[in-house]
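Supplementary Methods S3. Complex input for the 2,5-dihydroxybenzoic acid-bound model.
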Amino acid sequence: MNDLGRIEDLPKDYVQALRDQNLVPLWPSLRGVLPPKVPTRQTQPTCWAYQDIKPLLLKAGELTPIEKAERRVLVLANPGHGLDKMQASAAIYLGMQLLMPGEWAPSHRHTPNAVRMVVEGVGAWTTVDGEKCPMSRGDLILTPTGLWHEHGHDGNEPVIWLDVLDLPLVYYMETSYHINGERQAVVPGQGDKQYARGGVVPSHGFERSKKAYPMLRYAWQDAKAALQSLAADDSALEQVQVTYTNPETGGDAENILGFYALMLRPGQSLRLPARSPAQVFHVIEGAVQAHIVSSIFDMVEADTCCAPGYEAVTLKNPNPSQPAFLFIADESPLHRKLGVYENRG
Ligand code: GTQ
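Predicted complex, serialized as structure tokens:
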């Protein structure tokens, strides 16, 4: 590869004359923006242990009342991007949110898409577009772009969940904003529950939903049962994984990020191929050892890690007698829509 000219090779007054006209020579930066064969990635393999996050989040509950926070969240920031950027990867934002008993995180809507993966505690709910979604461990609640959402908590213990948003991308596009609203009226019978069990729909009054997001809550007990029946049905199936989909279209549940649940059989080691999207792994049940580039993360329940794109990841269940269950978020819907998706094996 020939060396390209550097900025220092040019006369200073010429560089200044360019700058005065808001002009920049491409060749000194060409290799930076178009590196050979593999993209430059700021995303570093990073792991956040729940046992480290939880006491700091509970402390935030003492230090900052909900009225002063609106959303009481500690952001899981990737040091490769710079902590202030508040991103786990190029397109993924992760936050751990705390709601104390009786607190209310007021209604708003915004352009970024979000999901919540419930980590701990009972009695909280998120109302999305008038649909009240109870929050239990492992449930996935969608708050897609533009839909009103608010969080409340009628239980007795702190509730903590993982927020996954496409905020870094939507912000980068200069399309990120929010609107505050009033407390929502809960409106039962909107049809959201029609799809709650795959393949089984109400016999009377069922009409195919015209909503962009017909299903807002994916209960963990159902996703887990789906994984267990897949695993039992085919003992040779290597990747026991389900995708959270829109039940009307069969496509991804949201437009930008993809969401999945994975079961690792007792003692299983699973190599995920090197694909272009960055990924996030969150342990719902059991223990998982993740090999990502040169990092090895020994993760227990409620721990979260991220992996850059274009790298293979190996996930291992160290327990010889119990399965492990993970929640995965990735950038593949975005990469597919943009036409940059690759699987390099
Ligand atoms: O719960 O609506 O972590 O608006 C970041 C932005 C959570 C939320 C976040 C948000 C929310």
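Residues 50-63 form the longest helix (14 residues). Residues 336 and 342 are 9 Å apart (CA to CA).
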